[in-house]
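Sequence, structure tokens passed on for absentees:
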Amino acid sequence: MDKQPLTPPPVEPGAAGTGQPDAGNIIQPTAFTPASGETRRSRLAIRPVTVILGSLLLVCSLIAWFLFTAKSVLINTTPATAQIDVSDKLNFRLGEHYLMRPGSAGLTLSAPGYYPLQTELQISAQQNQTFDYVLEKLPGHLTVTTTPETNAQVSIDGEVVGSAGSKISDISAGEHLLEVRAERYRTHSQPLVIEGLDTHQQLALTLEPAWAEVSLSSTPAGARLLVDGEAAGSTPLTAEILEGKRDLMVKLAGYKAWQTQLEITAGNPVELPPIALEKADGLVLLRSRPQGAGVTVNGQYRGQTPLELTLPPGQDYKFTLYKDGFQPAHRQLQVVSGADQNLDITLQAQLGQVDIRAPHADALVYIDDRLMGRANQVFSLPARQHRVVVRKEGFVDYQTRILPRPGLEQVVVAKLRTEEEAKWENIKTEITTAAGQKLKLFKPNEDFTMGASRREQGRRANEAQRQVALTRPFYLGLTHVTNAEFRRFSKFHSSGHVKGNSLNNDRHPVVNVSWQQAALYSNWLSEQEKLPLFYQVEGGKVTGFNPAASGYRLPTETEWAWAARRRQNTMLKYPWGNNLPPSKNAGNYADRNAAPLVGNILADYDDGFAVTAPVASFAANPRGLYDLGGNAAEWLNDFYGIKTGLSLQKEVDPMGPETGDFHVIRGSSWAHGTVTDLRLSFRDYGTEARNDVGFRLARFVD
């Protein structure tokens, strides 16, 4: 088909575009009229079929969505018949399964006879899920009946829950141990299964008797039978007696009790042979004045008065009472069956005379803790041992024991001692240390003057006179501490030698020791005997002392001066007397043997030793002390000090200055031979070790 060219239609005269109006074609305006409501509604109306189809489509979509996203849930219950109720969540049950979307849901399980269970299900994203639940059974109830009928006690699992014949409620379901106890019956025990489910179970039991029948008779009849002390009837009788070991007693007034022990087996009857009762013993009560007398019956000892005896009747008995200091008493008595008989006997004393004397007429005499009067009189006492005490205020009781003898007067002389005298009687006059030294007790209680007169030849300025009082008792070593004794404290100590002359022999006094070493040795010895330490030590050095301590120490200067110089209210000048030269063997001083060793010697004296000698080589002084002059000078406890002039103020038990740089050294030694240093008032001082200075021990009594 041929294509024709498109040409516009011819324009009519007056048509648009010509620019000329056409009266016939002019558009005229009209009034506006809105469309009616009916017309709009007809345009927007939805048909019912469309709605229904849309709804069905939506529901199907929701169902498809739920089926696609839901999980299969299986809920198993015990019991299987439990009712299942799922709440708070959309679910569909298909047979035994539920379709539910993930999340939580409330679950309630219930069944008759069980406790309901409420819980929450947690549905996970897993496709198939199983939940298992076991419902708890409700408790059960039980009634136990017994044959014979009793009010038996019922226990379950060891706990009493009721009695036979009554309902026992709320027993947990399951296995239990049942026990039924009834008086005079054996305990019944068995396993028990409680069904629970709020059911009421019945259990009938037959109880086994726990006794046996025991038959017995007595001659005479009418006696009471006691079983384990409880009345069970009168003979003749057959008694029901519980199983086990039982004590049987048959009693009748005027007869001895018959008794036996039986082993009773439940259900096995016992018939005892006839019992012939014996007449009862008689009762005899014996009393004596004084009490405590020994008693024999027909020569056999039975005890002391007051005494109650049961004796077979129908015969005579001989009673003898005896007591120290009294004459024996004899009685004869026939005992009557079932009767109470008394024997009251006054013993006749055997007296001895005791004359008790005392130096104080007003002293009181106590005999066997009874005040008998004043001393210095004769007492008549029973011939037995007595405790005698003679007492006077301010004195320690005198005590003794005495046995008076008839026809022989005895004398007791009571030595009354003051408390101070009694105290010293119990304190040793000589003691031995753990290292073997001997110390002697001294109780000076004396005033005297220390130092030397200015007019005394050889006196030095440090020997000023002063008044002292020595009142405190003390022990003082008989000799110096020896090398052997000191080496128990300091194993490697050596006292050395002087130009080849040894100072180190075991029995020689230890020398070349400082004051500190001597004080520390004293403390060491106190420790060996567990005594309070006298010296106070810090960092291995003595820093002070405790004057109240009773441990070992060095002597005070006052003690040393009293022990060395004081004789019959005077003060000695030299150890041997008041004049030079020393008497033969007066001690170990610088004699002719020491000439090569020291400068000043006693040229006309020979003691046989150039240096130290064994301790106690020379005679002791009048107090029994050795070498207070000679052999070795001695460290003392006191700090060194100097007093000027004669002090008029008396010092009591002085222990030297409170502080100082040096300590006092007293006594001469093997190296001394001049008038000055041989005198007992000579005072030296120092702190370091010297080859002519040793020490001896002292200690307070308390």
Q: What stands out?
A: The radius of gyration is 63 Å. The helical segments are 37-44, 48-69, 419-425, 483-487, 515-528, 557-565, 675-678. The longest strand covers residues 71-78.
